[in-house]
Amino acid sequence: KQEVTQIPAALSVPEGENLVLNCSFTDSAIYNLQWFRQDPGKGLTSLLLIQSSQREQTSGRLNASLDKSSGRSTLYIAASQPGDSATYLCDLRVNQFYFGTGTSLTVIP
Amino acid sequence: AAGVIQSPRHLIKEKRETATLKCYPIPRHDTVYWYQQGPGQDPQFLISFYEKMQSDKGSIPDRFSAQQFSDYHSELNMSSLELGDSALYFCASSLYLAGGYTGELFFGEGSRLTVL
After folding, report:
1. Could you tell me which residues come within 8 angstroms of residue A104 by beta carbon, excluding any fewer than 6 positions away?
2. Which one of A94, A109, B86, B111 has the minimum C-beta count within 10 Å?
3. A99 touches B: beta carbon within 8 Å
């Protein structure tokens, strides 16, 4: 069974900082990995999708990388803003889907 | 742009009752996924359908069943409800891609089920 761990579990940073969220997984035979954000009591908003053949994806201030050999993906957020405050989840597709444990991010104005 | 539509948004049931949740995927999406998210938990994959056939199965209890219809909408049927079934149920949809790749998942806002 795929084990997906996200570190740190919670992170609090001042506005404007660059930060990195980590997602580690045990089985490297993944089809793709997707990063989401979730606001309290809300649905999941897709941020970036990385197919297994890709190394990274970028969208605006976000950059996600994938290193299957080391079982790791990182989400880089540049120039953080208070609106970035949310829980960030990585989701792996193997023969089914596995969500990570999530990182709760708070950006302090 | 049209998103994934789930109904009802909120549902309250008694123990041992039955509940049905509906999901309408993004137009032209052919794959639907169901997730369960308990309080303070990360989403757990339940089941998925591609072209009306079950494609993958996760931690869906035997008391639950689901299907995808010809218009690609899906329904999750839950019977003999238990207190522990209280959760947020998400539906997601994607477009199947050839070559073993899977499309980006888009989630609905969820259906909150409360079992009393």
Report:
1. A9, A10, A11, A86, A87
2. A109
3. yes
Identity of the residue in B43, B104, B106 whose CB atom sits nearest the CB atom of A99: B43
Residue B45 forms contact with A (CB below 8 Å): yes
As a whole-number percent, the residues of chain B with pLDDT over 70 amount to 97
Note whether B33 contacts A: Cβ–Cβ < 8 A.
yes
Which pLDDT value is given to residue B100? 61
Report the candidate in B67, B111, B105 with the shortest Cα–Cα distance to residue B85.
B111
Taking the Cβ of residue B38 and every Cβ of chain A, the question of whether any pair is shorter than 8 Å is answered with: no
Closest residue to A43, CB basis, from B45, B103, B110: B110
Please choose, from the candidates B61, B53, B4, B50, the residue with its C-alpha nearest in 3D space to the C-alpha of residue B27: B4
Neighbours of B96 (CB within 10 A): 13
What pLDDT, in 10s, does the model give residues A4-39?
999 999 999 999 999 999 999 998 888 899 999 999
**pLDDT above 80 (res B1):** no
